[in-house]
Design a protein that fits this description.
The protein is of the alpha+beta class. It has one domain. A 4-stranded antiparallel β-sheet has the order 1-2-3-4, covered by helices on one side. The longest helix has 17 residues. The chain starts with a strand and ends in a 7-residue tail after the last helix.
Amino acid sequence: MRESKDIAGVGKDSDKVYRITEMPAFKAEKWALRVLWAIASAGVDMPDDIGHAPLSKLAEIGLKALAKVPFDIAEPLLDELLSCVEIVTNAGTRRLIIADDFQSVKTLLLLRKEVLAMHVNFFIQD
């Protein structure tokens, strides 16, 4: 079963709740490989001890590394992260997000970071 979790929006979106659901494994692997190729192609150096970093640190490292990739390559990867996000309506149902579901850039950045964290947990060593 895929992992899901609810995240509250921030700032102007603080009255909203978003549901993040993990990508299916096949899709997540392809996404991760595309990210790794993009980062490597951009010449970004990754820390040697990345496998020992806590989950939140991995997400931060990943987003910083993607920031060094040319935007035209990084944009579809970042957008694909948001494909894991639904909005929870006032009635308790969920639907795919649309641009009007966001008033705060901070909410978008938080959601991308949380989705990324959810998908990099396989790096964590026991």
